[in-house]
Amino acid sequence: MRKIFNEVASLDKKCYEKFSLNEELLMEHAALALKKDIKKNIKAFDSTVLIVCGVGNNGADGVTLARLLQNEYKNIHIYIPFELKSQMAILQYKRLKLLGLNFIKDLNKVKKVDCIVDCLFGSGLNKPLNEETNTIIDKLNEFNSYKIACDIPSGIDNKGVIKTTAFKANKTITMGALKLSLFTDSAKEYIGKLKVANLGVSDIIYENDSNMFLLEKKDLKLPFRDTKNSHKGSFGHACVVVGCKKGAGVIASSAAFNFGAGLVTAIVHEELQLPYYIMQSHKLPSNVTAIALGMGLGLYDKNELKQILNTNVAKVIDADLFYEELLLDYLNQEIILTPHPKEFCSLLSLAKLADINIDTLQNNRFEYVKMFCKKYPKVTLLLKGANVIICQNDKLYVNTLGTSALSKGGSGDVLSGLIVALLAQGYNYLQSAINASLAHTLVAKKFQGNNYALTPKDLIKGIKSL
Ligand SMILES: NC(=O)C1=CN([C@@H]2O[C@H](COP(=O)(O)OP(=O)(O)OC[C@H]3O[C@@H](n4cnc5c(N)ncnc54)[C@H](O)[C@@H]3O)[C@@H](O)[C@H]2O)[C@@H](O)CC1
Ligand SMILES: Nc1ncnc2c1ncn2[C@@H]1O[C@H](COP(=O)(O)OP(=O)(O)O)[C@@H](O)[C@H]1O
Ligand SMILES: [K+]
């Protein structure tokens, strides 16, 4: 996993004050990282590279890049639509002028471009884009070129919100370290592949401590069975409470069994047609080790619910339970909650933390997650979305590995099943949420069929061979 920061200006400052680097040095490295990626992806000398530079230091990165790319390609077009403001941009521009590079005045005259580098705005975007900038960005997005965003796609603000439009990158090369603004659901549409540019000192020196992390494939710890002298009881007994919408519980049960739970029982009111390896019972078995509850619940007897919730074993809570006030009684204990944004809005309202709509939540996902986990530090919260956020107390993790193939009824039920399987097998709450989420998203990523075709069954099948 990699550390994520709210901002990196303080990390840059540390480089200057503690390690005697300076702004020019960092910028040269920023531009070098951009150059390296372009050289790797654009091979032919005959190519055209368009560098679009804004008024601040993001623009200065672009101007510096233009200098480094001179004579590397036949056509380097530099487009500076507004008057430069930052001292570094003015200095780099002066150097560029002396080298005699090609500035363009009218974007409409550019017909074919192999690579576009967006250096309009970076971390300094602090107000809505004006009409002219919107038009420039929309025009850039129309080109069928390899598109790189310098630091962050222009148009995404420092909270990760897109007010009007944003540059749609194939790759974002972010400077120094990962910033939280890169990981909102809406930013995911624009970021493309994400790479961190080294600014001249190693990560260990550049970065400070952080409580926020980006999850990576290599973080996944599958529940491999290392013990030889084992029996089914060694891997726990997961119980899934099946509600009115029975499919949800059936999917979760099946996912749990396939992810290693030694025994799985579906808690049902009436006998269902289930895979033969899933047991059925009207009440919780005495040797239950973990419970999944809430998915497809519908109307359910409150006393029965309380009885299940009062059982002293690990639990993952999903879906309909986020609309039940009685859940509040269980939030001061260790428990995993897996709401999607609408359910989380309900939860925030029940907890009297906020009365907000989904848009407000989506524009402030990290803030609300942190606020909730501050009030309930024992809860492990997994907020679903294009980028999943997992938070416990003051530690926050982001999983960006999911794809829109997962935007289907039943995907979340599979996730609950995976989580309860890991809880049953003895993973702690945080590790259960993290590893189940990683497995869930990596299976979707690996899926061989068309991305509209993934079913819960495919997900469960994919779990077998991750
Ligand atoms: N140590 C550093 O400062 C480093 C900075 N680097 C680059 O510098 C960038 C940050 O530079 P800046 O802080 O100058 O910020 P930006 O280059 O993102 O832009 C800030 C400038 O744009 C103006 N502005 C903001 N929003 C606007 C809007 N909507 N419409 C019109 N003008 C607007 C501001 O008034 C300011 O003049 C980073 O994203 C990164 O690319 C890198 O070179 C690495 C080192
Ligand atoms: N565009 C997307 N990119 C990545 N993951 C997604 C996307 N859309 C949905 N998901 C994931 O799919 C799952 C959907 O869960 P949920 O909404 O609870 O569905 P259901 O209740 O029907 O099972 C979540 O884990 C969510 O993060
Ligand atoms: K940019």
UniProtKB/TrEMBL annotation:
Binding site for K(+): 58, 118, 154
Gene3D superfamilies the UniProt entry points to: 3.40.1190.20, YjeF N-terminal domain
CDD domains per record: YXKO-related (cd01171)
UniProt binding sites for (6S)-NADPHX: 57-61, 122-128, 151, 248, 296, 340, 413
Cofactor note: Binds 1 potassium ion per subunit.
UniProt key word Lyase: yes
Enzyme Commission designation: 4.2.1.136, 5.1.99.6
Cofactor: K(+); Mg(2+)
InterPro entries: Carbohydrate_kinase_pred_CS, CARKD, Nnr, Ribokinase-like, YjeF_N_dom, YjeF_N_dom_sf
YjeF C-terminal domain boundaries: 215-466
Membrane-crossing segments per the record: none
Catalytic activity: (6S)-NADPHX + ADP = AMP + phosphate + NADPH + H(+); (6R)-NADPHX = (6S)-NADPHX; (6R)-NADHX = (6S)-NADHX; (6S)-NADHX + ADP = AMP + phosphate + NADH + H(+)
Domain YjeF N-terminal span(s) in chain numbering: 8-207
Binding-site list for AMP: 412
Family statement: Belongs to the NnrE/AIBP family. In the C-terminal section; belongs to the NnrD/CARKD family.
Oligomer status and interactors: Homotetramer.
Protein name, per record: Bifunctional NAD(P)H-hydrate repair enzyme
Source organism per UniProt: Malaciobacter canalis
